[in-house]
Amino acid sequence: MPKYYAVQAGFVPGVYLTYSECQAQTAGFKGAVFKSFLSREDAEAFAAGKKVAVADEPEKFYAVAVGNPTGIFTDWSEASKAITGIKGPKYKRFNTRAEAVAYIRQYGNREAIEALGEKVEPLVEKFEVEEKPVTTRFTPIEKVAVTKTRELDTRPRENVLNIWTDGSSLANGKAGARAGLGVWFGENDPRNLAERLPGEPQTNQRAELLAMQRALEIAPLEQTVRIHSDSQYSIKCVTQWADGWKRKNWLTASGEVVKNQDIIRAVLAKIEERTKAGGNTYFQWVKGHDTNIGNIAADRLAVRGANLA
After folding, report:
1. Residue-range definition of the domain harbouring residue 96
2. What are the Cα distances from residue 209, in Å, to 30, 79, 197?
3. Distances, alpha carbon 136 to alpha carbons 130, 140, 142, 143, 252, in Å
4. What are the pLDDT digits (tens) for 50-75?
5. pTM of the model
6. What is the pLDDT of residues 229-260, one digit of tens each?
7. Residue 154 within any structural domain of the chain
8. Where is 69: in which H helix or E strand?
9. Is 98 helix (H, G, I), strand (E, B) or coil?
């Protein structure tokens, strides 16, 4: 029986058919509200803010603290994809979402915690009172010494290079369209890139994918990277759909040739090359044209690239 995932508070509220689509709208959204239902009518009512009598609450929560992507899943098939091919994955099943969140807070890195919409607390300073006896030859006295200690997070953290990518196509889908791609590593970073999309067609999707490829080409091969993109299409191409396309010899379920497969396959090759060198490749969806500094910067570079000769 199919499930319907209703997002009442998220990046784009609505009803989604898979948990991964639901998570894309809720991961990193502070105060996200979402539930799964067996009825589309109930799901639509919940997404619209109406009260719904019975919700199909998931019985199990799979917490993935180290994976691609990280997060909390209610479907093991989705959770298993997040840990496949990951060196040293960390995951566990729980009966409540609160336990799953606590697990990721304990074993996940800062990005994994923030992706849940959870606040990462700074190091806590506290004072402990330690009693040390000090004696003289006359009368023993107690001297109280105050020692300042710092609680340190001693968990090993993965060294991750964050990169933001974006694509832009002026007059996308029309004759004379001009597309460009942008890759942003940081403010005034010499690796930042604005490039005109080569070849045809000059579409936004091809520009988004090529931006990912360029990011992987520029970053040191053994370096673990996290690519931030506002293109769910591009992310799903290389993290979810590619396996099925490979099995079908790069044909879709309807028997059509997969579009943009030249760039998709190039990105997959770069991911595999990085994995063999000891690095991981993560992808993080971000809301486009919002307040994310990296996404805004990558978008500007992409527009600049589209305007290049």
Report:
1. 61-115
2. 28, 24, 10
3. 19, 6, 11, 12, 87
4. 887 654 455 688 889 888 888 888 77
5. 0.53
6. 999 999 999 999 999 999 999 998 889 999 99
7. no
8. none
9. helix
Q: Which residues contact residue 279 at a Cβ distance below 8 angstroms, ignoring those fewer than 6 apart?
A: 221, 222, 223, 224, 225
Cα separation, 177 vs 200, whole angstroms: 10
- The secondary element (H helix, E strand) that includes residue 153 is none
Neighbours of 15 (CB within 10 A): 20
166 and 303: one domain? Answer: yes
Amino acid at 55: A
In this structure, are 197 and 225 located in the same domain?
A: yes
In a domain, 35, yes or no: yes
Quote the CA–CA distance of 273 and 293 in Å, as a whole number. 29
One-letter amino acid identity for 18? T
For residue 267, what are its two tokens?
């990105």
168 in the same domain as 260: yes
Q: What is the CATH number of the domain that holds 285?
A: 3.30.420.10
Contacts of 12 (CB under 8 A, 6+ apart): 25
Comparing C-alpha atoms, which of 230, 208, 204 is closest to residue 11? 230
Domains: count for the chain: 3
Task: Report the interhelical angle of 261-276 vs 204-218 (nearest 10°).
Answer: 20
Say if residue 96 is in the same domain as residue 181: no
pLDDT at 124 over 60: no
